[in-house]
Prior knowledge:
Blueprint: H1 3-15, E1 27-28, E2 31-32, E3 38-40, E4 43-45, E5 53-55, E6 58-60, E7 65-67, E8 70-72, E9 85-87, E10 90-92, E11 97-98, E12 101-102, E13 107-111, E14 117-123, E15 135-139, E16 142-149, E17 157-158, E18 169-174, E19 177-185, E20 207-210, E21 216-219, E22 221-222, E23 234-237, E24 241-242, E25 253-257
Antiparallel strand pairs: 1-2, 3-4, 5-6, 7-8, 9-10, 11-12, 13-14, 14-16, 15-16, 17-19, 18-19, 20-21, 20-24, 22-25, 23-25
Amino acid sequence: MSVRTFAVLALLAASCGGGGGGGCPNPCGITCCAASQVCNNGACTNPMQCQGTLCGAACCQGQEQCINGACCIPCGGTCCGNGDTCLNGSCCPAASVCGSTCCNNGSICIQDKAGNKMCAVACQTSSECGGQTPCCVLLNNNTQTGACVANNLGQCRCSTGAECASKACAPVVANDVVSAKVYVCKANDGAAWDGCQGSVTCVNGYDCWVDGKSNHFCARSCSMDSQCGNPGTACCNTQATCNNAVFACGGPGGCMTCP
């Protein structure tokens, strides 16, 4: 230890009474509090300036309590972090707040047509759901993640027709163009972009195409991706199989989701 460092330490000890010299009548760690102050958790505080509860150098007011050296309105005996909300006696991260409920990991917050919010299990396809919530509903705000709900609450996502009561699973379409890399359960009635299982014939302008997962649906025939619109999402699948009951398909491939 250098002579200079030793001298500084000796000065601090003397000023706070550490050396027994009585230089500090009110020591507080390495600090010396004024006579009117109190030492609270290593900090000098003037009790006359706090009309609530002293908490270190802070003053808790109203319903706040001093927990682990911090003032807060308690939530189950602890302080919630920044942005967290106290729900039912527990701190809930902002991203998990769903009305008056905190969604668990693996769940997402959804809202029904009446505006009621609820937590639901996140899913990609209906085979991941079951029980009272067998449908992996297509969410309008996020086509990459669905939510397990009752069958009557929306279009059910699927990978194959086995997940659908109609046995028909087909791409999501908007304005006659495949709009997302997601399949949903459709009617097996031969309408545009609906199912064509069995002996069902597609309406004029559409052919019955079968994709690599044996999904039969009425799609527009094509020979190149540009004919399908929506680049990157809709592609011309020339590996698909034509399944028209009578006539040949109108091209070597069918418009469906890109790989």
